[in-house]
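Internal QA ticket QA-208
Title: Verify multi-chain structure generation after dependency bump
Assignee: T.L.

Test input:
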Amino acid sequence: MQGATRQGYDFESATRRIAYLVLVVLCAAPFFVTNEFYVHLAVLICLNVVIVGGLALLCRTGQLSLGHGAFIGLGAYVAVIATMRGHWPFWLGAAGGALFAALVAAILGWVILRLRGVYFVLVTFAFAELVRLVMLSWSGLTGGANGIVGIPSATLLGFAFDTKMRFYGLALVTAATVIAFLYAFIRTPTGHAVDAVAENPALAEASGLSVHRIQLMAFTIGSGIAGLGGALLAHYVGFVSPESFNTGLSIAVIIMLVIGGRQSVWGPVIGPLILTPLPELFRGAVQTQHIFYGAALILILRFLPGGLASLLMRMSGDRASH
Amino acid sequence: MDTLLQVDGISKAFGGLWALSDLSFSVSCGEIVGLIGPNGAGKTTAFNVISGTHPPTSGVVRFKGIDVTGGPPNQVVRLGLARTFQATSIYPAVSVEENLYRGAIAAVDTGLFDQLLNGLRTRAAVARVRENVESVLETMGLVQFRHTPAGGLSYGYQKRLGVAVALATRPELLLLDEPAAGLNPEESAEFGRLLRTLRSNMNLTLLLVEHHMALVMDLCERIVVLVEGEKIAEGRPDEVREDPLVIEAYLGAPE
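Actual output:
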């Protein structure tokens, strides 16, 4: 039985049941929720699941990127420019945005993935600033600081996702696909290799696994997923500007991942599920919101390094998997 | 006997410090060779150069006649030259079985797409890996710890698991960096017997760095002595033991 060999990272049945419950609620929600605002939140949650899922893949190899926002932005801008200027269909533009983000990540990663830990984080941060400045300065193509407005809504095979409810369907399917991909991926031999690289890179390398190749693959696929999330986000919101993809976004993604749980497939679901609606509770006190995030991050890292996903696992009594 | 490993004039400088200077020796198929020397003699550096972890400043390493100088290590392992590390040679957070699975998994060479779909070729490759894992579990006497988290094993068994992970890569030559460090004399003697069994059962050639003299003298057929990065002696254990240069290096010169 394959599950037996993955102690420490695997989820037992009770937690899986919780995840199924969440899925059922998400699917059923539109039939009960009539308030547009809640549908809007649900769309954002789904898009965040896609984006955080992309970072989770890289994080699983033991590296962390502070430039995830840049790849979301690259995907968004390429998709928007392709559909608005090149008159590409929506799906082709979104695919192009994802592929472009993946290509840039592959080139960047090939050079900088020899760096480890904080050095890698710093270079991705610098790269993200570079991308933002290019978006800002290349105003002929990107509209500069004004951004691009009036982005058409997504259409697929003649069907327009032009209401919040309709777009929710697209976002939910995409999010579920990304999570299903992660779930299947970590169970492949390459998925095991990814965990090996994260836990002991020297030993993984000495066992014939190329640390560089595996991290590069995760960075490329993860950034491509971020690009796809960005493309969807742009078509949903109808507006992009360089400030939409600043360091704040990269940090928000990291916070969602860490609080959700870095070592579990369900972390990228739980993090956005809790943190996306949260700012609405802090409407009256925007400043305190960031204090709360900081405190939550420190507390989680100190007391619950596996994130809320590991707490759920513990609550459901799955001690055996530890 | 065929030469399996040929180390030809390797030197390694860290800044101005020469950790190795002009080291040459060879290992033949089926031999057990010991690399000994006082602390700081450059033994681990020699291992790092041979396994491709560090490129040498000069010199050539040939394995099965192929130039493997400077690695990368993951390619050198695929040729059949595996190594263990002094300290962390395991994945402590996961089970013993998963440790071996990770050690053997480089043999699965199907594309990610085929793996995601669990295609026929992937299934066949994974089945071979599982078989390999089972045989290593059995040979190394780790079957009863299959589901134990590796970090929860006793120190002696962690050392043994470290060797097992390297064996899971199906090597022809195994480099062991202080396999008996921290073991008591009894455990160390048992380890020696185990290594001999491995050699005959798995057609293995062994090169080991070890401070445990009783084990080295008993186990090795040939010994290379390093002092301050240079080879000062090479030969059978009884020859090396009588060598005045070796005695001087270990005990100091007579007044």
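Spot checks passed. The radius of gyration of chain A is 19 Å.
Status: verified.
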